[in-house]
Fold this protein.
Amino acid sequence: MTTLVTIGEAADLSGLTSKMIRHYESIGLLPKATRTEAGYRLYNHLQLKLMGIIKQARALGFSLQETHSLVDLWQNPNRASKEVKQLAEQHLTDIDVKINELKHMKKALQELTDHCNDDDNASCAILDGLAKG
């Protein structure tokens, strides 16, 4: 594919918004687009593929820094797949930590709501429990 597409078309094809594409360019996650004489951004097939990688990495919860590392690895033909796997495995570990934190939060909040009288009185077991810290 040697055809260049505008930012609107790139957004449609990649699933990113035009605003996010400009943002990713501004922070160096995407290379700067070539521009027409009128100043319109134009993107090639490699940039579109990169947009897809960025979109999917962000959808999987990778941070911008982790996404940048994945982009760097993708662009490096001499990369070792074990580097990519290590990054993904670390992210899985981070997800497990977040899941455990969310489970703890849910249990604590469930205990508070279980003690709520759910009536018109001002006394509130939830607020009392939050105040205990």
